[in-house]
Amino acid sequence: MNAITRLKAISCAVATIAIMAASPTLAKTFKIAVGDGAGGTQHELGKAFIAALEAKTGKKHTATLFLNGQLGSEEDTVNNAATGTLDMSILAINNVTPFSPTVGTLTLPYVILSLEDAEKLTQGPIGQELIENTVRDAGVRIIGWAYSGFRVLTNSKRPVESVADLKGLVVRVPKNQIMIETYKAWGINPTPMAWSETFSALQQRVVDGQDNPYITVHAMKFDEVQRYVTNIRYIFSIEPLIISESVFQDLSAQDQKSILEAGQEATKHSAKFLRTKESEIKAELTARGMKISDPAGNEAEFISLATKAVWPKFYESIGGAEKLNAALKVLGRNTVQ
Ligand code: MLT
Fold it and tell me: In terms of Cα–Cα distance, which of 240, 200, 237 is closest to 222?
């Protein structure tokens, strides 16, 4: 859907809000699209959200999860939620950025350096501003956040421990300009591809590698088609639960409150899940034969190339260098000029 068609669809959806606002909310079973498979952080967030929603509404409202991209690519689910043909979706923030570029602040390489950083940015005023921007730009509202850990590089060819080792690898990335530019800064031209197509592209060796967090690699069974892992830690993966703004506005004030509170409870659960599960899953992947490398001494080169080349390219799309500086200040880090 192009920008004009999307805008028309959003205005149409907003117009119906006014008509529907006065009606009482009927019991609903929301449909939630989920990009990843069972056992990942998206699945955990979805299950926790449903449990909290049922508890808060006395089971008046519930929801069903459609895992593994059954309801379309993550990008499609943003479009479908914007037009109100889908209720909710859980997807990676990098796949929201093309629709609402200011959320790119959360995807710039080496900005978020820990789970605590991710929590500070998403749960404070910066997160609130990004939620409002996403309603404005994309017609969807972020109501919860899954925290999935650092994206690590996996590939089927060889250990990668330095920027030079990347040369010649065909790496799939999401259709996200920040991530594309990051790999370019490291000297290779990555292959942008929808998440829903990634497993088969790895299996058929159309691409050699990809990056995603350990828990996602495990949930998607990538260990069956990938052998080498590199802890590049360039992006801490955050995966929001979004609701169609027209569906949200159609709910009574009490139901909106329950939805928002259920989203907050699910967010807390997600952080706890990551803290307890990530190392267990990493050990399991090693036991299944994945070989993990740490760039250690070479990490400074990854960081310096990415931050110098990529950050300035995206100041405009995130709303100005001051938006990055606001994030860096919240994290207690040095700001940029
Ligand atoms: C992607 O690589 O497109 C996403 O991070 C996948 C996901 O939603 O886990």
Answer: 200
